[in-house]
Amino acid sequence: MTQTTAKPVPAPSDPAKRVRLILWILIGVIVAAGLVWYAVVSTNKPAPAAPQPAASAQLVREDSHRLTSPAVEKAQLVEFLDFECESCRAAHPLVEELKKEYGDRITFVNRYFPLPGHLNSGTAALAVEASARQGKYQQMTAKLFETQTQWGGKQDSQAAVFRSYAQELGLDMARYDAAVADEKTKERIRKDVADGTALGVKGTPTFFLNGKKLVLNTEAEFRQLLTDAAK
Predict the structure, then answer these.
(1) CA torsion, points 144, 150, 153, 155, in degrees to nearest 10?
(2) pTM, 2 dp
């Protein structure tokens, strides 16, 4: 695996700025994924989905998870993410902040992109998608990032842990279990991965603003791009 290094940022003068600096270093140092894990982890692993031709790839599909619904959409920000990715966890609070600031003008969209080096990222995506079927997409996403240090990096399946989170969220567990086992749920995740791969996504988080893949070095740069797009 290779790493890319963000451009130097001036040393912060206070603790808050130090946190911001660490965030952008984590985002800047994105782990490249040579081949993406198409077969989402489950008891019976389904056959991998064939790579999606770039010409037929879609950045946003009709069933993609839209996290904001502006009355008048000025732009779309699409994030391909992995719930076991430390950089995605570090970016999550900032993305939540940006949603509040720009959500009335920009549609924020999330898409799955579990990386092969994260053994429970596919299982986590299944848990999130199963929760989404009961209207708890954002709640499960927040729970997984909040607890990532507890389950991330484990070699054994964390499916039972994720199921306990679903119980905490008050989900109908029979419906949750059925959704996790449903081939359509797995296919939904594979479709996101296939689209992302065809669009040139190699690591997470990867953002697209109005169809253009972003290369981000600072939070200020990110905000300015959103400000310009939201005009």
Answers:
(1) -110
(2) 0.79
